[in-house]
Amino acid sequence: MRAVVYQGPGAVDIREVPPPELIHPRDALVRVRLAGICGTDLHVIAGDFPGIQPGAVVGHEFMGEVLSVGSAVTLFKPGDNVMASDFTACGHCHRCGRGDHWECRERAFFGTGTSFGPALAGAQAEIVRVPHADTTLAPIPRGCPDEAAILLGDNLATAWAAVERSRLEPGEIVAIFGGGAVGQLASLSAQAAGAGAAIVIEPNAGRRAFARANGGLVASPEDATALVAALTGGEGADVVIEAVGNQAALASAFEIVRKRGRIISVGAHSVESWSFPLAKSFANELTIGFAIGDSIRLRPRLLSLITTGVLDPTVVIDCRVGFSGAAEAYADLKAQRAMKALIDPRL
Q: Which class does domain 157-290 fall in?
């Protein structure tokens, strides 16, 4: 079968690889209809995360049709249309029971090598093996387009997790560093949750225009402090979401958050340590948190928002390619010529 594979730092290729097989009774095989390229994938192929080997199939966002299931799979059968979490979880341990699926001891993250658990072949392929299928997969309900379903697996779940972790109150001011797919979806999620204003802070003029067209306020990094001060009487933003995944953006969050405000980082970080403004955080009673999107926990709530028309995550998708266009799509995302790319293996 065809798949996108990691060649080495900064490079992917399209290759024929052996199709996956059922290994465990709880596995399912899914024929991929859509696979996403995510900012985390850019980190993976750049070599920012350890454990990815040349020849490994990459990608962690997908939806499609069930081809076959193991003997212990009870919720799905061949022919079912399904969406997927970007990582697996057993669904039965005490961590899964309290909704902390990312912390499951049996977690594996599709297409990221051994960075976050045991290696699991990625989803930018014609067929993907899905462990713990009854937990990892979910049916796609009527009223949820395929392109929305794929975003539920990671980008939208991550954006909503940021808002959820921030404990946003209606009317509060939210500032978001980063105008990529997750940052834009964080703006839409904050608006849906009742934010007084969602400010997308982004150097790229095109991405600022997109955020403005979709209900957000915008600022370049140089103008962010003045805009936040003007909106809040100099107090600072109630919530700051860091959706870039670098130290500079996270450091900047401390410059615009109000006293007793909350900073939530959902950017994918790979550095081991960071200089933390401890004295300022103590004096200003700041809260800082990190969140990873948990589609398994959040799917029911987000599906309701999508099917009722409250939230349309598909607006961020601006690049659709077949396998032949995958390498160029990676390059376009890295250069910020695209915001969100999907691979359709049928093209």
A: alpha beta
| Sign for the pseudo-dihedral over CA of 105, 93, 20, 2 | negative
pTM: 0.95
Within the chain, all domains assigned CATH 3.40.50.720 are found at: 157-290
What one-character DSSP code corresponds to residue 20?
Answer: P
Contact (Cβ atoms closer than 8 angstroms) between residue 128 and residue 120: no
Q: Please report, in tens digits, the pLDDT of each residue of the chain (347 residues total).
A: 999 999 999 899 999 999 999 999 999 999 999 999 998 999 899 888 778 999 999 999 999 999 999 999 999 999 999 999 999 999 999 999 999 999 999 999 999 999 889 999 999 999 999 999 999 999 999 999 999 999 999 999 999 999 999 999 999 999 999 999 999 999 999 999 999 999 999 999 999 999 999 999 999 999 999 999 999 999 999 999 999 988 889 999 999 999 999 999 998 877 778 888 999 999 999 999 999 999 999 999 999 999 999 999 999 999 999 999 999 999 999 999 999 999 999 99
Strand partners, 37: 341
Cα distance between residue 346 and residue 63, in whole Å: 13
* 131 beta partners: none
Class of domain 2-154+294-343: alpha beta
Amino acid identity of residue 233, one-letter, is: G
* Secondary structure, 3-state, 135-160: HHEEECCCCCCHHHHHHHCCHHHHHH
